Amino acid sequence: MPKKRVLITGAGTGIGKDTAKHLVGRGHSVIAAVHHADQVAPLQTDLGPSAKVIKLDITIPEDRLQIAELGVDVLINNAAQSESGSLAEIKIDRVRRLFEVNVFSALELSQIAIRSMIERGGGTVIFISSITGRIPEPFLMPYSMSKFAISAAAAGLREEMKTLDKGIHVSVVEPGPYSTGFNQRLSNSRFEWMEKEGSLFSPKQIAAMKSDTDRKLSWLEVGTTDTIVKKITAAAEASKPRLRYVAPWTFALLVRVLRILGV
Ligand SMILES: NC(=O)c1ccc[n+]([C@@H]2O[C@H](COP(=O)([O-])OP(=O)(O)OC[C@H]3O[C@@H](n4cnc5c(N)ncnc54)[C@H](OP(=O)(O)O)[C@@H]3O)[C@@H](O)[C@H]2O)c1
Q: What is the mean pLDDT of the chain?
């Protein structure tokens, strides 16, 4: 297997950190990009000297520009934030801010990577979307819409890169629910403002939402990130990666069944 220079964003925690560790273990040259400067030293210790840890807030243009000179073969757009609540009442600025991170910044970073990959004769851009980028999730729609946008962007960009014919591959990875703390934060983000800002939904409905979420997450979340890390690694290592990678397999099956049913 050819060793690659892989840059992964949002590598300070969760799926990004686990993927960075796995890729280091497989002998790749990993650039693990973290959100905040104080995450650099602990992660560098964790990953060891073969990896390079950098601070890269994907929303900051100067931070993004650093990647032009890093000779990246594979970019994994993993960094993301969460925002939830009903589309009937959420302040649109919250949705706008979320799209700035999850969609626009990931695309701007990818544009820089694509130019440098073209100069080097090719490469792969991977977007970490979500199963909620395939199946709309009521009350999590700000986040779900951002992931629909990323899944669609990956599919379209992939075709554009085929036309360009400069060796740029594009894939999207769509994880189901994994227990990294992200889903809990995603779910809770709506309650932070619904309770303060005079929601259309009654306290009883809000309380029911809270217990419904806790029940769903304890039932659905996968305890370790192993299966999704393997999918991301498969996309990063493939000479011709597939468009889409989904894990765990139960969610891959669900998406297929819903597609057959026309849902
Ligand atoms: N866990 C799941 O069930 C699940 C399911 C579907 C999709 N996903 C996707 O998987 C990816 C990783 O999520 P995770 O579960 O591992 O959650 P996570 O631990 O919260 O990972 C997200 C990472 O992105 C970083 N980040 C946020 N804003 C950033 C910015 N502006 N610039 C750079 N980094 C930034 C976060 O840093 P800070 O925490 O320091 O802000 C964090 O390290 C995300 O794209 C998420 O949407 C997760």
A: 96
Which atom of ligand 1 sits closest to the CA of residue 56?
A: 33
Write down the pLDDT at residue 1: 81
Q: What is the pLDDT of residue 196?
A: 82
- The yes-or-no verdict on residue 259 having pLDDT over 90 is no
Tell me how far the alpha carbon of residue 241 lies from the centroid of ligand 1, in angstroms. 23
Q: Domains of the chain (ranges plus CATH)?
A: 5-261 (3.40.50.720)
What tens digit of pLDDT does each residue of 61-118 get? 999 999 999 999 999 999 999 999 999 999 999 999 999 999 999 999 999 999 999 9
Residue 84 CA to ligand 1 center (angstroms) comes to 15
Say how many Å lie between the CA of residue 14 and the centre of ligand 1.
7
Task: Mention every residue, 6+ apart, whose C-beta is less than 8 A from residue 43.
Answer: 11, 12, 17, 20, 32, 34, 53
CA 261 – CA 224 distance, rounded (Å): 30
Q: Which atom of ligand 1 is nearest to the CA of 36?
A: 40
Cα 229 to averaged position of ligand 1 atoms, centre (Å): 14
Shortest-distance Cα residue to atom 11 of ligand 1: 78
Query: 147: CA distance to ligand 1 center in Å?
Result: 12
Ligand 1 neighbours (beta carbon < 6 A): 9-10, 12-16, 35-36, 57-59, 78-81, 101, 128, 130, 175, 177-178, 180, 182-183
Kindly state the tokens that stand for 183. Answer: 């889903």
What mean pLDDT do residues 148-159 have? 98
The percentage of the chain sitting over the pLDDT mark of 90, rounded to a whole number, equals 90
pLDDT reading at 129 higher than 90: yes
Residue count (the chain) = 263
Sheet of strand 123-128, all strands in order from the earlier edge strand to the far edge = 52-55, 29-34, 5-8, 74-77, 123-128, 168-175, 244-247
